[in-house]
Amino acid sequence: MDANNQPQMLPLRVMRNDKIADGIHILEFRDAGGQPLPEFSAGAHIAIQAPNGLLRKYSLCNDPAERNRYLVAIKREANGRGGSCNLIDNTKAGDELMVAPPVNDFGLPPRAQDFLFIAGGIGITPIMAMIREVLRQGKRFRLFYCSRSPEMTAFLDELSAPEFKNQVTIHYDQGDPARSLDLKPVLAERKNREHLYCCGPRPLMEAVRNMTDHWSSTAVHFEAFSEAETHKPTDKPFKLRLARSGEVLDVPTTKTILEILRDRGLEVPSSCETGTCGTCRTKLIAGEADHRDLVLAEHERADTVMICVSRAKSDEITIDR
Ligand code: FES
């Protein structure tokens, strides 16, 4: 850690930058001197500084048992803020980039034996590390992988291999929501105390969240690879009352509750800041929240709020801070 409690960035060598599907490249990083890299567990991500200076987080997709390399699959987001395009277009084997060591907000519980994975598009990346680990440990899994077309599907060859084939369903929708995979039968019951891990576009994760209200909330896990919808054009400012001090703070449309609390100098735990990990769970004492997370079950929403993404429907809300 440096003086600001930030993890030290490592200079790592790019070993390859190869296209693996339309608009998707795989980048491999190693230590230039051949030293082992900091360990990671399935579901972890690293932050990479692109040549243009932007810092971007990407899930590791290789087997966590590999100690000598990090593999990330990056989708070229032409309408994004420039990190992915810059990494894909301006990085080549032999380059050195700064990489923050792995962090995991999406880990597998060690005692679980059965897993249900649902991936949409590039959301397959953390799931690839997970299925490699689950398989190596002799555990069981089912994977449903939604993609637009075979050409746009990363890891297609690998997932068609005999060791994966019988456990993997790949569904193509050709970009037509009417042809989306019907997940209702898949999620109708929780088989063998499965843990569900879902990563993909927000609409897919929200659909899965809505279809799993009858699952234990501790068995359902999400990871967002895109920005959370923390701000919408229709948002309104609201008052935030802190029950412990009685203080009332203004939350403008441009800031989250978490940011306002930090601006006020309060220490508030957080991790993903996309409404998926559950770290910022806070008791809601009064008022009505505008929930934008993927963590809370329906019955928790009246008295709990995830303050990294959610806002208020009422003019004022009171939280236990
Ligand atoms: S920090 Fe992860 S849900 Fe808020």
The molecules bound to the chains, other than polymers, are:
FE2/S2 (inorganic) cluster
Q: Please report which band the strand proportion falls in: under 5%, 5-15%, 15-25%, 25-35%, 35-45% or over 45%.
A: 25-35%
CATH topology term of the largest domain: Rossmann fold
Q: What percentage of residues falls in helices of 4 or more residues?
A: 10-25%
- SSE sequence, one letter per element: EEEEEHEEHEHHEHEHEEEHEEEEE
Tell me the structural class: alpha/beta
For the termini, the CA-CA separation is 28 Å
How many H/I helices?
7
Q: What CATH architecture label of the largest domain applies?
A: 3-Layer(aba) Sandwich
Number of E strands: 18
Please name the fourth-level CATH homologous superfamily of the largest domain.
Answer: Nucleotide-binding domain of ferredoxin-NADP reductase (FNR) module
Uncertain stretches of 5 or more adjacent residues: none
When the domains are counted, the total is 3
Largest sheet: 6 strands, antiparallel
Looking across the biggest beta sheet, what order are the strands in?
4-3-6-1-2-5
Q: What do you see in this structure?
A:
The radius of gyration is 20 Å and the shape is globular. With 321 residues, the protein is an alpha/beta fold. The longest helix is centred in the middle third of the chain and has 13 residues. A six-stranded antiparallel sheet has the order 4-3-6-1-2-5, with helices on one face. The two termini are 28 Å apart.
